[in-house]
Amino acid sequence: MRSDHQLGLPFMKMHGLGNDFVVLDARAQNIDVTPALAQALGDRHRGVGFDQLAVITNGAEDLHLTFYNADGSLSAACGNATRCIARFVMHETGQSTLKLSTDRGPLSACDAGDGMTAVNMGQPQLDWSEIPLASAMDTLTLPIAGSPVATGMGNPHCTFFVDDVAAVDLASFGKAHEHHPLYPERTNVQIAQIIGSDHIRMRVWERGVGITLASGSSSCATGVAAARKGLTGRKVRIDLDGGTIHVDWRDDGVWMTGPTTHVFDGTLTAAFLDEIS
Fold first, then answer.
1. CATH number at residue 68
2. Above 80 in pLDDT, residue 2?
3. At 40, which helix (H) or strand (E)?
4. Is 13 in the same domain as 115?
5. 128, 141, 243, 276: which has the fewest C-beta neighbours closer than 10 Å?
6. What pTM, to 2 d.p., does this model score?
7. String of DSSP letters for 43-87
């Protein structure tokens, strides 16, 4: 870690439906973010703890976002973190709409009213090579027990539709499928139960993290998968362990709307940062 942070490093803690993040604002200062820093911060006993680390930098749009998983690996997309940061910046600037850039590509966000924030996560990736999968196959019915659906939302997803999400041991199920050989970059794993034509109950295992209370990109992937299979329409309510999010697959992309929370601000001490270097 950089040794010139003698006064420490400010950070923000945020969450969307319990899907929690540490956010570093690097628009006004150079922050040397490394996998080692991400891992140290992600440790819930010795660091701060998070599902993802998000770094804000200046970009071609209003701002650029970079995401790290708790194991230090990069992720091109993180829907709930995008919504949390969009809410923070809209409050900061007085804007009601934002243009963001990510490794996934350009995204749009807006104030959806009633304290809700919406982000357009872009068009889903439905071809095997874009997700990516190991070889050419039908992404609507993978050759895996349970016939899951593969979807890309800037990161890979594998969605299983089950009769009862409570009956699945997600800890072992998710871990086993994250590393399935069909997914060369590993995958996020969702188990989803259809409640109605516009209502889904879902639980999530995130690659590089484990079980999370919510996941924005997973919600988008599940909404797309359900619509593709004809199980729901393109606009659905998804109930996760941490709360409810709304997904709307429109012509211009997959919109996701839900609440955000800015929990607290803190400062990483110089001593903590020195231990990482």
1. 3.10.310.10
2. no
3. helix 35-42
4. yes
5. 141
6. 0.92
7. -TTTS---SEEEEEE--SSSEEEEEEETTS-EES--HHHHHHHHH
